[in-house]
Amino acid sequence: MRTIIFRTIAPYLAALMVLFSIFVLLRGHNEPGGGFIGGLIAASALAIYGIACGVASVRRAIVFHPMGVAGFGLFIGALAGTLSFFKNQAFMTSQWLIFDLFGVEIPLSTPLVFDIGVYLVVVGAIGSIALALEERETD
Amino acid sequence: MAGSSVSVDYSEAMATAPIASGDWLVIAPILITMLGGAVCLMLRKNTDIQAKMGIALLGLLVLASLGLLIRVLDHGVITMVMGSWLPPFGIALTADALGATLTLIGAIVAFCAGVYGASTVDSTGRRYGFYPFLLLLMTGVSGAFLTADIFNLYVWFEVLLISSYGLLILGNDRIQLDGAVKYGVLNLVGTNLFLIATGLLYGIFGTLNMADIAIKVAELENPASGTLATVAALYFLAFAMKAAAFPVNFWLPASYHTPNIVVSAVFAGLLTKVGVYALIRIFVLILPESRIFMSDVIGWVAIVTLLTGAIGALAQSEVRRLLGYLVIAGIGSMLAGVAVGSVLAVSGAIFYAVHSIIVMTALYMASGIMNLLGGSYDLRKLGGLYQKNVTFAGVFLVLVFAVSGLPPFSGFWPKVILVDAAFQDDRVWLGAAILISGFLTTLAMGRVWIYAFWRGGPEGTPDGQTAQSVVTDTSQLTGAAVWLPLGILTALIIYFGLQPEWMLELSTQGASGVVDPLGYVRSVFGGEG
Questions:
Q1: Which residues contact A103 (CB under 8 A, 6 or more apart)?
Q2: Mean pLDDT of each 10-residue bin along chain B, 529 residues long
Q3: Which position among B54, B329, B475, B484 has the lowest Cβ density within 10 Å, counted as fewest Cβ atoms?
Q4: Is B180 within the bounds of a domain?
Q5: Cβ neighbours of A30 in B, within 8 Å
Q6: What is the total count of domains within chain B?
Q7: Whole domain around residue B342: which residue ranges?
Q8: What is the pTM for the complete model shown?
Q9: Mapping DSSP to helix (H, G, I), strand (E, B) and coil, where does residue B263 land?
């Protein structure tokens, strides 16, 4: 698999895929997309980079262990639902913060935080599986 | 696009009334374990902090579930709808006496397991994630006990199953993988049946909210129709697999002796009972007509399960496998309660579930201590434990009496209720089976007691003589970590045996809440139900 063409193109491809996954994640609130599918795209970016340049360099690149990333995702996902406690609303009731930034209306919300949590859980879990499988192959 | 605005009256779709902070107790058991499990997962490498944090969080879980139970007893059934979307579209979490009681008992057992695991799970097991998995397992278990939505129940089942797979293969031994494959395959089939049945149910009623289904079933012109009977039969098979009822019980003795003993203890205590809980919820609360229709089948399954469990236990010489069969026998008793279906019988089943959760966990923990003292799980190799630790011998005798259903311990009362309910309903064979199973259990456990404690040494030691005692590594027995959980559970067993009124009242309240779902429905839909 480690042909020169693949090895040259893989870092750019992986970077593009991560960028695209974030785009998919952010548009997910009202349109097709969201945390799950975005996370899958990002995890496949990790997998491609791992196949081309070795698992060790992927682990270096993402700094944290994938399981830790998944744990963090679960944490902020669950935490996003608890904000409504302070407004005497039920768990997971969405809270919005809409503000103007240089004339552009930016809506921030707890569903977005939840979606980022899902994204990280998927990246962490699927990435961890993919890296483990790739590691076995090269051993 | 997002910009195109359509005016929507949210008051018709969303709950706008403010929620009392106390109602957050409904979600608290799930939140505590999920957030805690996530943090433990991030600190996976730091094994010392993990144990302390895990135990503290499980302690917090006990407090939260106790608070929830007290609130339910004060205020009646509590409902919280996720995201404020009104039911049946929003997913409701509803705590009634049944769910809150089982959540509390489950939390106590998990806390005990967390403490016990601090000494018996080594740092490798912790690095593989004992505490995160235990916490997330409790997320699934509490979620299953508290949800009021059938599909959501399925999701919690998945959560607890995935965590249980992780716990099963904690050490990555060959035998553990073998046990996990059997456990995994059967549970996959079971969950698939559950999902198929849920799909069919949704096809019939167009709703997944349990209270909503209960209303729609009651309004049905022909409640014993073929489609509904199919759904009921599928549910029964799926939950019987989870609960390890005959004839789908073989996976339990084949897998429960493979993991770390504290994992076996949690599984034996909690997992099969979640299956029984789902049976009670679905058959008694949602599909009462189908339960009447199937009550003979459930009754016979209960009888055979009671007998297979007890006879299987008699045939075993490996303590953990023997206990596995006793779990199955206990499931038979609870099924007997579902088969009869009166308030009395269901309350007996609930009380029995509480008793069984506590006593089976305690017995597995005790068998772990037997292994530490005597160096084996095999009855042929054990012996002379009475001399090694008299107090432990006494505690074990209490557990023997309790699991056999002998007074004055917690197993006695639910059995009395169940036998009484079976006779009242003219199901003589069912009552007889409970008694016979109790008798056989007494024999099986008496055998363990005589061989492991009274006999002077391993098999072949002549009467009245003491063999050279096996030298074992008792370093794990010096701290409080293994004794404290066993002590707590045994104290509960004695308490429920001597002072059964509190638990009797709780289980009666839980049972009347599912037999007559009015309070449950009202809590979910407001006064109109």
A1: none
A2: 50 75 90 94 87 94 96 91 84 93 96 92 85 95 95 94 90 84 90 95 91 88 80 94 89 87 93 94 90 91 95 93 95 95 95 96 94 88 85 94 91 94 93 95 94 84 73 74 92 94 93 90 72
A3: B475
A4: yes
A5: 1-2
A6: 1
A7: 19-528
A8: 0.93
A9: helix
On whether residue B14 sits in a domain, the answer given is no
Q: Which of A72, A74, A89 sits opposite B19 (nearest CB)?
A: A89
Length of chain B: 529
What pairs with residue A106 in β-bridges? A99
Which residues in chain A are contacts of B24 at CB distance < 8 A? Answer: 85, 91
DSSP alpha helix (H) spans, B450-482: none
Q: Distance (Å) from the C-alpha of residue A38 to the closest C-alpha of chain B?
A: 20
Q: Does B49 touch chain A (CB under 8 A)?
A: no
Contacts of B31 in chain A (CB under 8 A): 78, 81-82, 91
Compute chain B's Rg from CA coordinates.
23
Tell me, yes or no, whether B53 lies in a domain: yes
> What is the number of other CB atoms lying within 10 angstroms of the CB of residue A61?
13
* HEC secondary structure over chain A: CCCHHHHHHHHHHHHHHHHHHHHHHHHCCCCCCCHHHHHHHHHHHHHHHHHHHCHHHHHHHHCCCHHHHHHHHHHHHHHHHHHHHHHCCCCCCCCEEEEEECCEEEEEEHHHHHHHHHHHHHHHHHHHHHHHHHHHHHC
Helix, coil or strand: residue B227: helix
Residue B521, CA atoms < 13 Å, CB-side half-sphere? 17
ipTM: 0.91
Q: Is A123 on the interface with B (CB under 8 A)?
A: no
Residue B295, in any domain of the structure: yes
Residues of A in contact with B42 (CB under 8 A): 68, 71-72, 75
